[in-house]
Sequence to fold (627 residues):
Amino acid sequence: MSAYLELVALSKRFGSSLVVDSVSLQMGKGELLTLLGPSGCGKTTTLRMIAGFEMPTSGDIYIKGERVNDKPPYRRNTAMVFQSYALFPHMTIFKNVAFGLEMRKESRQNIGQRVGHALDLVQLRGFEDRYPRQLSGGQQQRVALARALAVEPDILLLDEPLSNIDQKLRQQMRLEIKAIQRRLGITTVYVTHDQGEALVISDRLAVMNKGRIVQAGSPSEVYESPRSRFVADFIGEANLITGTVLKSNKTRVEVGIGDGQVVFALPDPEKSVREKERVLVSIRPERIQISKTGLGERNSLVGTVEEVIYIGSNVRYHIGLGKSIMVVDKQVISLDTLHQVGDKVVVEWSEANAILVPAE
Amino acid sequence: MFPFLGALVMLIVESFQTYIHGGIIQVSYSFTLENYVTYFGKTFVYYGFLWDTIRLAGIAVVISVLMAYPMAYKIIRSKSKMVKKILLTTTIALFFVSTTTKVYSWVVILGDAGVVNSIMMFLGFHQTRYLGSDAAIIIGLIYFLIPIATLALIGPIKNVDPLLEQGAMNLGATMTKTFLRITLPLSMPGIIASTLLVYAIGVSSFIIPAFLGRGLVFMMANVIYKRFSETFNYPGGAALSVVLVGTTLFMAYGIGAIMMKKMRGFR
Fold:
């Protein structure tokens, strides 16, 4: 089965900086792929190249098997939703959503039907005669989405569509977008710097840094098995302990972390480590147990509570372990079970939760 | 602001004074409408001058704006920084050339022994008098007004969010359609404003009709000049000035009001 969207060694250079560095990926029909990364990592530029707003410096873009490098944006069947919505201020909501269909010379009747359908999808029926400036940010974004969906594009492109929307609405809208995408089965590329968002909506995600894709996979794959310090740090949070490999076999790796202390981690099935190699052991804050006396795990360290940060549903501890700090996240069951600053505690985790990451 | 208003007020006051032949300094103030009556009541000659002025300036302005728009568009939207710089620098540089120089260059080109005539005669045509015609003045005005129009149009075009144009193209609009449906309507208020500005400048031009009109074509500024300098008819000149300013303001206001009505939608 050939890919619906394929990027082959796509690169873009602006002047002297290489903004997109040999990006390759394949997408199947109906998939939602997220390009995730910090500002300036090249994700938006990649998206714009797919849409046709930027010409690649090298590399190829194939949509449904056809090479589209030389096709201008208005000949590609892609539709983009912009971060700033980009609604036409001098047109009504109806005209905005109908615009793509008018360009495709659809009949009046057809246009009316499809616009109505698109507005239904985003729950904005009845707003046809209003102007963009009369709508709230969230509503405008939904109109932008309806406008893109109305043309039934081969590929839907979303460029940080929820960045300008407040937190609570954002969480609701990302689920709405996902639901619509699923329902229509529309192949979608989503760009965001919000890793929480990426984890929630993606079928697959590609983490980008400095123009390259550093890791791609399903959300759980990328979260559970980060393959670099960058990914471990960028997605979720990670405690990274520096150490040296003492012993390694197929089931477990023993890492010395100084002062005679030893922790254990799962080996990476893709890459074996040698003795004396410097590595990082990555453990997620929420996968750590914290108690006064310890629960018998093989990976355990003793430390002192240096800070207690209460976030309502969760509490975050900063545990001092000699020279480093370990961050531990726990749910708050009740206030009196919280540890206090100055308490001596034992932090423990199972080795299934400890991932080896190359030290850079 | 106030010096201008003050001068304008004095001008208006002057237009109601009686014309004393040969007298320059006002001894006593009077009030009479005879200046207006003489020029616009009894004879219709001056309507001719006014109409010529409006007509010539109008044609020149429309052509200038039409030619300036693509220039301004390129300056803003061109993908090459070099192109932008060259166009913008050229436009601004043209400003620093004095009007007299620009006009004289056209005298050289269009004159009886000028460039055009030399080529025409070489090709076997008769020597033609180009100066002193409406066309010569219009050409001179256009040459003078295009840099102004270009710079004036930069603002409105810049205000059109390029993402809107990209959004339109993304939805299937070709470059032409994008321009007609998105860029043009959104920059229209600015275009109108720039056109009026350029018109106001054009309608008051003096040097261009003076040199290129060769005494055969007059615009209002020239007529006013004659009143002031040749016959010292200050009240008369003032009256003509007031009429010129008045008609221009009236047109600007009228067009502005029409535009406001048409744009109740979104601005």
Observations:
- Chain B touches chain A through 19 residues (CB under 8 Å).
- Chain B has a mean pLDDT of 83.
- Chain B has twelve helices and no strands.
- Residues 45-77 of chain B form the longest helix (33 residues).
